[in-house]
Amino acid sequence: TFGWTKYYELEEIEAWLDEVLATYPAVTEEFIVGKSYEGRTIRGIKISYKTGNPGIFIESNIHAREWITSASATWFINQLLTSKEAEVRNLAESYDWHIVPVFNVDGFEHSHKKDRMWRKTRQPHATNACIGADANRNFDSHWLENNGASNNPCSETFAGDTPGSEPEAKALVEYLTKIKDQFSVYISFHSYGQYLLSPYGHTKEEFPENYDDILTIGKAFADAIEGLPYGTVYQYGSTADVLYVATGTSVDWVFNELDKKIGYTIEYRDKGRYGFILPPVQIIPNCEELMVGMLALIEKTKELG
Ligand code: 0X9
Ligand code: ZN
């Protein structure tokens, strides 16, 4: 049976998703973002307990090797549906959740079957033997500017030939545009480094007009996680300021092009000891951190209006 003491392959995650959809038909619904290059269906689950809730969109595993992200997304889905804790119930039932546990389906499959460290999509390049692009550099927001991505198909941060050249990114843009009135918060799950990153990724010379609020929310997230007995420390701030310049990311596209005010990238455990190969015993502790962090993040977001 499915659980959170090991990592699962795509097929197992999808079977679990089917089971969840069948078990909670009154409050769950499948949605389809689109098709990957290799023809897989990019699936999501919507969880909605009542009408009129504000929406939160969670995109996970855009980078193939970041397995802790889909493990955390499935854990989070399970908590929203099964937790009996008052705070979690309130979080679950006061928002409409749109969650894509494995976005980069082709890359994820490849990371299981062939190359554990695969990051990118799997679409071949027309004039180069290297395969794939960094889906998180392929969105049409400051695409390929400021050295925040590479034009070399062999680079791990290859931006793709054009914005939306990757079928996965193109499908997500179309899907998010279609449902843009149904969510106000966008969160992208990544690993690793223990950061809560906000826009902008494309420059550290400029900050969003609501950056003070963004930092206040970030602090609430980090403080909540530090309050757990694990003592895990998260840094927070703009991507360009805290980490590095990254252009054409999904979060920045949503923030800039869909005019959303709250968008974060969570970079999960650890700080590099295990890196992308986070041991399975850390899945649940990581998820506990996610939950207290999310509770604080959403609470503070609501408080600041
Ligand atoms: O470089 C990335 O795409 C992310 N880091 S990772 O090590 N997981 O590859 C950070 C991207 C965060 N930036 C924004 N979304 N603005
Ligand atoms: Zn990543």
TrEMBL record:
Residues 6-301 form the Peptidase M14 domain. Transmembrane segments: none annotated. Keywords: Carboxypeptidase, Disulfide bond, Hydrolase, Metal-binding, Metalloprotease, Protease, Secreted, Signal, Zinc. GO terms for biological process: proteolysis. One of its GO terms (cellular component) is extracellular space. It is found in: Secreted. One of its GO terms (molecular function) is metallocarboxypeptidase activity. Its cofactor is Zn(2+). The active site is at 267 (proton donor/acceptor). Belongs to the peptidase M14 family. This is Zinc carboxypeptidase A 1. It comes from Drosophila gunungcola (fruit fly).
